[in-house]
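Aim 2 progress update. The chain analyzed this quarter is reproduced below.
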Amino acid sequence: MEPLITLTVVTLALRGAGAAGVRRLRHFPTALRGGLAAMFVLTGVVHFVGKRDELIAMVPDFVPDPGLAVTLSGIAELAGAVGLLIPGLALPAAAGLSLLLIGVFPANVNLALSGQDLPLHQQLPWRTLMQLVFLAATGTVVVDRWRALVSRRAAARRTESREAVKTPVAG
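Predicted structure tokens:
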């Protein structure tokens, strides 16, 4: 539940800053990148402190080294969070985090099937819904950054075309 709260609160705070005049934050996907970065810092850190043992216990039996899997996914979340904040890296970071969310989902299923008496927010339907929200957020960033990349490339081609017309060909 904390990741969803973090994503929501930080994204809304950044959107508020955009409404208050911070020009870059007027663009929703930019504020969303900040919210996702905060969320993935939170979730990445708990791979090492706080809930590490709980996360290791969630890893399905088919994973050969659950501790290593938790460590690597924590590193990936922290690296992805940094990447989201760098415009040129935000596209691969968001795409990688999307794949990570899909890749770790079996741990959610494993926890749900463990037979433990879980609070509502830990049960599979709620976890699935949150995972879909997180995927929608990372997907939004992927689409936004892809569009920006395509737009920049098109602008560069137009500039090259204009320069080619201005430059006489030696003959």
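The chain is about 75% helix and 0% strand. Residues 2-113+120-166 form one domain. These observations will guide the mutagenesis experiments scheduled for the next reporting period.
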